[in-house]
C-alpha cells in the first residue's frame, strides 16, 4: 500500500517536470539565428539570470501551493533509493529528474545565448538558473506530502552537470545524446501522470566520430536505455528493464537536409520505432 501511495505521488509530480523538459526542448529547437553584435556585460547577465530564476521560483511557488500542498506540512526528508524494485517507479523517476534538469539547463542556456550571453556564460548561468529553480522545487516538496528526497536532489545535480558540459562543449553534443522517448500506445499515453509510457536512453552517434563520418555507419547510433513498467497499475507486475539498441540517426538525416530545428529537437526526443532493441 505504501508503495502504491508513493507511486501515486510521483505520478502527480511527473507532469510538471516533464512539461518543463518539453518546453526546454522546444526552446532549444527554436533558438534565434544570427550572431550578436555586442555580448552582454557581466552585470547585465547576472540581472537577467536573476530575473529568470526569480520568475521560475515564483511559478513553482504558486503551482506548488495550489496543486501540491506546499507549506502545509512540517519539513521531512528521506532516502528513497535509486533503481531498486521497491523504489518509486523503479528508479525511472530519477532518470526523469536528470533529464528534466539536463534539458532545462540547456533550454535556459539557449535563451541566454539568444540574449547575447557568450556561449560559455550562457552554459554556466543556464545551468545555475535551472538548478536553482528545480532545487527550490525539491525544497518545496519537503514541506508537502512528497517530502524531500536526497536522490531526487542528486539526480537534478547530475542532470544539470551533464547539461552544462553538453552545451559548453559542442564536441560532446556531436557524439552523445541523452534522450526521452514517449510511446504511442493510446490506452497508456498520458504525459502528465505516469512513467509507464516513457523510456530514457543514451545515444552514441557514430557520425560524431571521424572514423565513421564518411562511411555508411554514420547513419546509425548505439543506444543504451532504461524503463520501468507496472508501477502505475496495481494489476500489472512491476518491471525494470535495461536494453541496448541499434538506432537510425534521423537527427543527422534532418540536419543534412536543412531541417536544423527539427534535428535539434531530436537530440532530446527519441521517436518510437526508429531503433532495433536487443533485450530479454
Characteristics:
280 residues; alpha+beta; 49% helix; disordered N terminus
Structural features, described:
The protein has 280 residues and is of the alpha+beta class. It has one domain (2-278). The chain is built from 8 helices and 7 strands; from the N terminus they run H-H-E-H-H-E-H-H-E-E-E-E-H-H-E. The protein has helices spanning 2-29, 42-67, 92-114, 119-142, 150-168, 170-173, 250-256, 260-265, and strands at residues 77-78, 148-149, 176-182, 198-205, 220-229, 239-248, 275-278. Strands 3-4-5-6-7 form a 5-stranded antiparallel beta sheet, with helices on one face. The chain has a two-stranded parallel ribbon with strand order 1-2. Helix 1 (2-29) packs parallel to helix 3. It is flat and about 60 Å long. Mean pLDDT is 86; it is low at 1-11.
Question: What would a concise description of this structure say?
Answer:
With 280 residues, this protein is of the alpha+beta class. The chain is built from eight helices and seven strands. It is flat, with a radius of gyration of 19 Å.
Number of strand segments: 7
Q: State the helix count.
A: 8
Number of domains: 1
Strand content: 15-25%
Percent range of helical residues? 40-55%
Amino acid at each position: 500500500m505504501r508503495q502504491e501511495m508513493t507511486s501515486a505521488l510521483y505520478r502527480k509530480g511527473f507532469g510538471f517536470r516533464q512539461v518543463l523538459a518539453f518546453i526546454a526542448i522546444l526552446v532549444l529547437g527554436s533558438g534565434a539565428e544570427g550572431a550578436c553584435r555586442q555580448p552582454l556585460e557581466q552585470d547585465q547577465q547576472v540581472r537577467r539570470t536573476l530575473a529568470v530564476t526569480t520568475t521560475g521560483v515564483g511559478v513553482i511557488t504558486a503551482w506548488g501551493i495550489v496543486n501540491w500542498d506546499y507549506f502545509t506540512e512540517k519539513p521531512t526528508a528521506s532516502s528513497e533509493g535509486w533503481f531498486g524494485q521497491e523504489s518509486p517507479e523503479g528508479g525511472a523517476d530519477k532518470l526523469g529528474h536528470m533529464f528534466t534538469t539536463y534539458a532545462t539547463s540547456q533550454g535556459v542556456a539557449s535563451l541566454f545565448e539568444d540574449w547575447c550571453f557568450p556561449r560559455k556564460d550562457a552554459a554556466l548561468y543556464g545551468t545555475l538558473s535551472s538548478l536553482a529553480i528545480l532545487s527550490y522545487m525539491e525544497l518545496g516538496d519537503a514541506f508537502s506530502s512528497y517530502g524531500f528526497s536526497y536522490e531526487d536532489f542528486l539526480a537534478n545535480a547530475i542532470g544539470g552537470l551533464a547539461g552544462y558540459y553538453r552545451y559548453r562543449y559542442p564536441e560532446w553534443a556531436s557524439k552523445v545524446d541523452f534522450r526521452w522517448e514517449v510511446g504511442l500506445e493510446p490506452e497508456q499515453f498520458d504525459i502528465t501522470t505516469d512513467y509507464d509510457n516513457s523510456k530514457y536512453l543514451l545515444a552514441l552517434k557514430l557520425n560524431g566520430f571521424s572514423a565513421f563520418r564518411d562511411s555508411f555507419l554514420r547513419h546509425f547510433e548505439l543506444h543504451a536505455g532504461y524503463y520501468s513498467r507496472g508501477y502505475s497499475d496495481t494489476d500489472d507486475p512491476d518491471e525494470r528493464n535495461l536494453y541496448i539498441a541499434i538506432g537510425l540517426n534521423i537527427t543527422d538525416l534532418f540536419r543534412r537536409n536543412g531541417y536544423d530545428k527539427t534535428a535539434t529537437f531530436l537530440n532530446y526526443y527519441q521517436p518510437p520505432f526508429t531503433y532495433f532493441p536487443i533485450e530479454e
